[in-house]
Amino acid sequence: MSGESARQTNRRATGGLIDRSRTVRFTFDGKAYTGHPGDTLASALLANGQHMVARSFKYHRPRGILAAGAEDPAALVQIGDDPARSDPNTRVSEQEIYDGLVARPQNCWPSLASDIGIVVDAFSRFLPAGFYNKTFMGSDRLRWPNWMAFEPAIRAMVGIGRAPKEPDPDRYESVNRHCDVLVVGAGPAGLMAALGAGRSGARVILAEETAALGGTVLARDPEILTIAGQAPADWVAEIRAELETMAEVTVLTRTTAFGYYSHNFVGLWQRIGDHLADDKRSSYLPRQRVWRVRARQVVLATGAIERPLVFHLNDRPGIMLAGAVQTYMHRYGVLPGRLVAIAANNDSGWHAALDMARSGAEIAAIVDIRRDVPAELLTAAAHLGIAIHCGSTITGTEGRARIKAIIVSPIGEDGSAGSTPTRIHCDLLAMAGGWAPNIALFSQSRGKLRYDETIAAFRPGQSWQNERSAGAANGSFALGDCLAEGARAGVEAAAAAGFSGRKPRTPKIEGSEAGQGDIMVIPELPSGRPAHKVRAWLDLQDDVTTKDLRLAVQEGYSSVEHAKRYTTVGMGTDQGKVANLNAFAFLAAERGQTIPQIGSTTFRQPYKPVTFGALAGQHVGGYFMPRRTTPMHAWHRDHEAIFEPVGDWLRARAYPKTGESFENAVQREAKAARRAIGVLDASTLGKIDVRGPNAREFLGRVYTNSWMKLAPGKCRYGLMLGEDGMVMDDGVTACLADDHFHMTTTTGGAARVLATLEDYLQTEWPDLKVFLTTTTEQWAVAAICGPQSPKLLGDLLDDFDPDPEKFEFMSWRDASLSGVPVRVFRISFTGEISYEINIAATYGRWMWDEIMARGTRYGVTPYGTEAMHLLRAEKGFVIVGQETDGTVTPHDLRMDWIVKKSGDFIGKRSLSRSDTARQGRKQLVGLLTEDPSTVLMEGAHVIATQTEAAPPVPMLGHVTSSYFSPNLRRSIALAMVTDGGKRIGETLWISRKDGGPIPVRVTETDFLALRDKGEIGEISAKGAASDD
Amino acid sequence: MFIITCPNCGERDLSEFSYGGEAHISRPKWRDGMSDAEWAEFVFMRSNPKGVFAERWNHAAGCRRWFNMLRNTATDDILAVYKIGEEPPQVSANLPATPSGEAAIGSGNDEAKVINSADGGDGA
C-alpha cells in the first residue's frame, strides 16, 4: 500500500447510519482509504469517489458499483491477503469495512486501472455466446477455435476470485431451530410482520440480510419522510426495542435466508465475524453460522429489486440503479455523483431525481423513454430547472473508468432512435427501470409466479407452502401498502400457527412518495446502430449482451432454460438477480412472445453463495463423521498402529515396529499367527442376539443353510443373500440355547443386516416370535490364533481345557478369565487353531492386557486387519465386499455346499433364475503366478491369451485379492473368472499396464491345502523370496 | 427435508427415517414352478408413479419400526401414515389445494394490492 489516503470527497455533510466520530482505515487495490463505522466497502469507496472496482469476467471491461445490496452483479473483490482466510467474489455492496481491511480487485493484471486483459474486449466478436460449447465440439484438432489449444489461455483470462490456498482456520456452526413464524427481511413489511406476530406470543425469528433493520425506509430522506411522526431510523429503533423485549422473538441481522426447502425448512446464513477485523473477532463465537429453521409459517418480506435499463454501452462504472443511489445518500451519507443523469421508464426515477436534487446533486437531465409523464413530476422537475427528455433513448455512453457523458436521442414513432443526438455530461447515470418483487425464496418454496403487466414483473402467484409474501416482495411497492400488508401478514401467520393477536396499527406516514406509476418496458433501447454493433449488457457479471441472446435464439436455443445455459445469462454468483427479468423480456421480444409465454428460469437454492465452511458447520476434521472405536483402541493407539476405517469403525490395520515398513509388519504379523500366536481385536464384528421360540426357523429363512439341527454349544457359518440371490453378508452364528442364538455379521454390514432382518420380521413374517437385539458393543472380542494358542488359552482361563481335540472346532463354551465370565468360540477365519474370546466390553482392554502379558512367553503378536486379510486368503476364505460385489451368488463362489436343497430362504428362487443358473458366470478361483515373487495387482484383468487382442479386449474376470504370503513363501491371489471352476489347472494371463500379460495357473482357493498336497511346493522351492 | 409423523413417535425430521421403497409388495410364498417372470415381478419390478404412492419408511433413529405412508410424489405431500399390515386409507387423488389454503393476503391475492394506506390496523 502506498500514498496518502484518498479523501471522502463524496461524503455528505450529515446523515446516514454511520458513526462519523470514528474513522476506519482500509485499503483497496493497494491504496489507502478511509470510511466510517456503518459503511460498506461500496459506500466507503463511493465516498472516496471510486466507482470502478472490478474487471468483468470475460471481456475485462471496467466494472463499477451498480446496486447497494445482494443483487449487485459485478462489483466483486477479494478480501484479505491471508492464504487461508482470503475470501473471493465478495460483493463490495455487502462487505462492511473495518480497520485494516484489505480488498483487492479480481481478474485484472497488473492492476485494476491498467489491465492487459482488456485486449480481450477488442476481440469480443471471437468470443460469442456458446463459445465454450462450440470449441468442445468435434475431435478434429485442426478445427478452430480448438478448445484444447486455447483452454489454458482462456482459463487464465476469464474468471473471478481466487480460492484460498490453505485449510480454513475459522470455526463455523450450524444450529437447529423451530419457530412459529419466520419473517424474512426487516424492511417496513417485515418489521410490521414481526411486530404483529411477536405481540401474539408466537415464537418469531426475524432475519435481516444487512447489518441494520429498516430496509428501504433507510433509503429515504429523513427530512421528508416521517413514520408515526418520527424519522424512519427512529421508528425502526422503536420497533426493534419492542421486539427485543419479547422473549420469544429472535432478531438476526447479517443473516440471509438462502434456501427454502420442503415443509417450511429454511436455511439462514448468519455472518458473525465477517464485519470485524481479525483481532476483534470473538474467540468463542463462530465466524459464520447456519440456522436450520423449521417454521410453522413463513412471511416473505424480501422486498423488490430494481431493474437496469438495457442500452448501448450500459456497463460503465458510474452507471447505477437509482434506488441504490438513494440508499447510498440516506443510509450511508454518500453522494455517489455530483452531476447526475437519470434514465427512467417509470415514475420512480423522477422521485429519485428530485431526492438527489434536494440532497445536493445537480441533475444533468431526466431521460424517460415514456412520452407521457405525470404533470406534477414534469412541473416539479421543471421547477428545479432540470432538462427533461421524455420519449427519448440513450444511444451510447462515454467514459472509461467512470461515465462522462450520455448520448440521448428522441425515439421516433417507429420506435427507432432519432437522428438528433444530444450529448449530456454527467458523472453518474442513475437508472430507474422499474421494481421487480424479489421472488427467489417464494419460487424456491414452489409457489407459482404470476406475471403482472402493471409492474411488468413476476409476482407471487399461488403459495405452495405455509408461507405468505408481503410488501414489495408481493408487488406492493408503496410504503403505506408495505406497512399494512406486513402488519396483516404477521398476525395472520401467527394465527395460522395457533396464536391470536391484534393487528398492530399501521403507522401514519408523511412525505412518502407515490408508487412507480405506469411502467414502459423496451427490452433493448433503440440506439440507431445495426444490431451486431450494439453492445448492451444484460448480465454484467457474466458479460452477456443482447447480441449473445440474439445469437442464441438464431441458433435455436430459444427456450429460456436453453438460452440461459447457452449464454450463461444469470448463471453467475449473483444468479442474475438484476439480469434475469431483462433477459426474459428481451428473449420474449426476440421471439415475438410475451414473458408469461416464455416463462421464467427456475430459482434455485442458494439465494446467494454460502461458504462451504458455513454449510459444513462443525462437521469437519475429526467431527466429520462419528468414529467407533473398540475398548482396546487406546492400546492400539499407544502401540502406534496404522488404522483404517471399516464402516463406522476405526480398526488397527497393522502394528509396525520402530523402523519397520507397513508391508514388513503385515508379513511379520501373518507369519506369527501361523507359527506362534497372533491376536486380533475382533470386537467390531457385528453381533446380533436372536431370541424367541421361532429363532431357529428364522435363521433357516435368512441363511442359505439349515439350522434345525444345530445343538446348543455349536456354531455354524452362514451366507446371507438378498432376494436377488446375491451374497449380502456372512458370519458365524452360535446356538446358545434352543431358542437363543448369537449371530455375527461383517463389521461393515452389521447395521444393514439388522435393518434387513427387522424388515422381514416386521413386514413379511410378523407371525415369527423372534426378537433381535444388537449386541455389537456389549462384547469385546480377541481372536487368538496359531499353534501356541491352546497353551495361552490354558494359562488365561480359569480351569479350562483348551485341547482342540476335545474343545472341537465350531463349538463354544462358557468360561472365566480371572473370575470374569467369558464366552469362548472355537472358530477360525485363518484356518489355524483359533479361539475367539468374548468378554463384557468394559473388560476389553483388561483382557487384551492380560493376553499380551501372559502371551509374551509364547511369542504373542498382535495382528491387524491387513494380516487378517492375508491369512484368510491363504485359507481361501472370502470377504464379502472384496470377493463379492453384489453380483455374486453362492454358486459363483463355488460354495454350493452351503445352499440347502429343500425349504425356502431369502434369495433362493433367484438362484434358479435363467441368468443366475446359467453356465459361463464368473466363479471364484485361486491364481498362482509362474514367478512366485510377482504379486498381482488387485483389480487386474484376467485374459485368455498371452497377447492382448485389439480393444475392446475380451476379459475373463478380475483379481479380487492378492498378497505375498509369508507362510507359503510366494504370491497368492483370488479371482473371479468366467467358468472358473472348469478351468482349474489352466494357464491364463493377467493384463498389466506395463510389460505385457503374465501367466498364472488357475487353482483351488485353499492355498494351505494345496501346499499340504504339495501342489505349490514345487514352485515355492525355487521361489526368489527369502524366509526371514 | 420432510417432517414425517411416525405412527409410534409422532412428528420427526426426515433425517431420522430411512426409506424402504414401494409398499404392499408381499414376498410370494415358495412353490415349485414359480416362473422367473413372476419372481422377478417381486424382486425387481417397482412402480414409480407421479402422484399418490404407497411407500415404506423405517423410523431408523427412533422406534425402529417400519410403517407405510401415502405420498404424492408430484408434490411431496404426505397424505397418510399407517401401520404395516393395514390397508392404505382412501385419500383424494386430486392435487391438493395449497397447504396454506389461499392466503387472505399476500401471495398473489389481488385483494392485497388495493390496501389503502389510510386503512390502518384495528388499533393496539
Account of the protein in words:
The complex is a heterodimer of chains A (1028) and B (124). Helix content of chain A is 22%, strand content 26%. Chain A is α+β, with helices and mostly antiparallel strands. Chain A folds into six domains: 1-166, Roll (Ubiquitin-like (UB roll)), CATH 3.10.20.440; 172-304 and 437-510, 3-Layer(bba) Sandwich (FAD/NAD(P)-binding domain); 308-433, 3-Layer(bba) Sandwich (FAD/NAD(P)-binding domain), CATH 3.50.50.60; 530-591, Arc Repressor Mutant, subunit A (Orthogonal Bundle); 686-773, Alpha-Beta Plaits, CATH 3.30.70; 918-1028, Elongation Factor Tu (Ef-tu), domain 3. In chain A, α12 (546-554) crosses α14 (580-591). The two termini of chain A are 66 Å apart. Mean pLDDT of chain A is 93; it is low at 1018-1028. Chain B has 124 residues and is mainly beta. Chain B has one domain: Folate-binding superfamily (Folate-binding fold). Helix content of chain B is 6%, strand content 27%. Chain B contains one helix and six strands. In chain B, the strands form two sheets. A four-stranded antiparallel β-sheet of chain B has the order 3-4-5-6, with no helix packed on it. In chain B, strands 1-2 form a two-stranded antiparallel sheet. The longest helix of chain B has 8 residues, at 36-43. The two termini of chain B are 38 Å apart. Mean pLDDT of chain B is 77; it is low at 96-124. At the A-B interface, β14, β26, β27, α11 and α20 of A face α1 of B.
